[in-house]
Design goal:
Blueprint (H helix, E strand, L loop, with lengths): L1 H44 L2 H8 L4 E5 L3 E6 L5 E13 L4 E9 L4 E8 L5 E3 L6 E7 L5 E8 L6 E8 L6 E9 L7 E11 L5 H5 L3 E8 L2 E6 L6 E14 L3 E7 L3 E10 L5 E12 L7 E10 L2 H5 L14 H19 L5 H15 L1 H16 L1 H10 L6 H15 L3 H21 L24 E7 L3 E4 L1 H18 L16 H15 L5 H25 L2 H21 L1
Antiparallel strand pairs: 1-2, 2-3, 3-4, 5-6, 5-11, 7-8, 8-9, 9-10, 10-18, 11-17, 12-13, 12-14, 14-15, 14-16, 15-18, 16-17, 19-20
Helix pairs in contact: 5-6, 5-10, 6-13, 7-10, 11-12, 11-13
Length: about 575
Amino acid sequence: MKDKNLDYSSMIGLFLILLILTIFTYLNNEKEKKFKINKEFFDKKKVPLFEKSQKEKNNFFLLENNVLRLKISNVGGIISEVFLKKYKAYDPSLSYHAKNLYLVKNSSFLYKMSFSNEKGLNIDTKNLLFQPFSLENKKKGIKILIMRAKNPYGKGFLDYIYTIGKENQYDIGFSVKTINFYPFRKLVSINLEQKILSMEKDRNWENSYTQAYYSIFNKNSASVKYLSERKTEEKNISNINWIAYKQQFFASIFIPEKILRNTFVQSENFSSGSFLKKIQFKTFVKTKKNEEFHFSFRFYFGPLDFNLLKEYKNGFENIIPFGWGFLKWINKYFFLIIFQFLEKTNLNYGVIIILMTIVVKLLLSPITYKQYKLSAIMKLIRPEIEELNNKYKKNEDALKKQRVMMELYRKVGVNPMSGCISTLFQVPIFYSLFKFFPTIINLRGKSFLWVEDLTSYDSILELPFFIPFYGNHVSLLTLLYSFALLGYTKLSNNGKKEFSQDENSSIPDMNFILYLMPIIMLLFINSYASALSLYYFTSNMINIGFLFFIKEFMLDEKKILMKIQEKKLIKHNQKKIQ
C-alpha cells in the first residue's frame, strides 16, 4: 500500500513539474513574440540597426594582385587596409626599410556616402553592414568583388563594386550602385578622408613633402594645383578631374568618372605622432528623380614613379615635386634622362650617382674651361689692375676708373661678364638637384658604403643635443663635401684678395663670402638626402681634378702672358701710326 501511495505521489509530482514547465515555456514564447514585434517596429524606425552595426564583428574580404593587397571591411564596405607588396617602410629599430608598407591601415582611409529620402531620413553608408554578394574572376586576371548592403528603411540594396586587374596594376575600379533604392533626394554627398601614415626615416622631412594635389579643368586644358604642405588649409574648388593625397614617395589618388563641379578640400597638419596629415575631400553628386544612383571612379594606391604615372595620361606625374619653373624642366628633361640611362647598367645606385656627376661635369666642361681661362688671365693682369686701383682711389674718379678698366680688358681680349654668365648658367643646375634626389623613388632605401638610404641623411654620430640649422646628427658625406668645397675654393682663388676689390670699398670681400660658403652648406644640407651630398662631393673633387688638368696640360700661363704683351704692343703701334 505504501508503495502504491508513493507511486501516486511521484506521478502527481511529475505532473506538477510538467505543468510548471509548460506554463513557463508559454510565457517565455509570448515574451519573445513581443520582443520580435518591438524589434520589427524599431527596425523600421532605424534604431537598433546602428547598435547592431557597432556590436557586429568586423569581417574582412581580400582582393589582391602581384603588387597590391586590399582588405575590405563589411562595416561600411570600406577599404580598411592597403598593403604594397614590393615596398618596405622604415623600421627605426633596424635603421633601414624592413617593415611591411601599408598606405592604409586600421581604417586610416575612410569614405562614405549619404542618402536622404523624402521623409528626411538619412542613410549613412559608414553604418551599413555589407556582405560579399559575388566574387568573379574575369579574363586577363581581373577580379570583381560586389559588397551588398540592405536598405535600412525598406526594400532595395546598395552595391559597392570593387575591380582589381592585371598583375602589376596599382589602380582599382570602384562603383556605387543602388537597386530599387529610391526615392531619395537629388543630392548625394561623398566624403573621403585619409590620415597619412609616416613611413620614412625623417618624419619632418617626409611631412614637408606630404600634401594634397588636385587637377582642375578650365576650358580645353587641365592644370595641377596643391594645398600648403606646412600649414592647415582649406579650399572650395570647381571642376576637379582628380585629387591626390600625396606623400614623399607614395600617393592615394581619387579619379572620378566625371568632373566634379563643387568640391571642398581640407588639409590638416600633425606635428607629432604616426600620422603626418589628415586630408579631407567633400562633394555632392546630383541624381535624376526616380532613377537609380550609379557613380564610378578609380583609386590609385602606389608609388610616385614618373614613368608609371605618365602611363595613365592624366597628368599624375606632375604631383612629383621636381621644383618650380625652369628647375622642373631641368630635372624632368635633363637629370631624369641621364639617371634613367645610367640605371640600365644595374650598378649600385651610389655608383650611378657618381657616374651621373661625371657625365654632367663632362657636358659642362667647356664652361669650366672658359671660367678657368678667364681666371688665369685675370691673375696675370692683377698687377695692372692694382695699379689702376691705387691711381683712382677717390670716389669722384670711379667712372673714369671703370672706363680705364674696360679698356684694359679689351686690350687683353677678355670679358669679365662672361664669367658671371657661365656661373649664372650653372646656378639652376646646382639648385635643381635639391628637388631631384629627395623625390626619386628608385633611390629610396638604397644603400651605398655606410649610407643606409640615399634619399635621407647619412649619420655617423647622433648628438645628445640639437644645433640650430644643423640638427642632432653628423653627416659624413656633408662633411666631405664641405671640405672638398673649401679645397676647391682655395685652389681656384689661390688665397689672394679678389682682384677687383678696392681697399676702401664698402662692398664685402668676395673671398670672405666664398670661404664662408662651405660652412653655410655644412649647416644647410646636413639633413638633406645623402645622394645630394654625394653628388656635390664628387662634383667638387672633379672640379679640383679639372683645375690641375687645365693648368698642367691645357693652359700655359707664360704663353698667355706673351700673347697679352703682343696685343698691347700691336695696339700701341696702331695708336702711334694714327
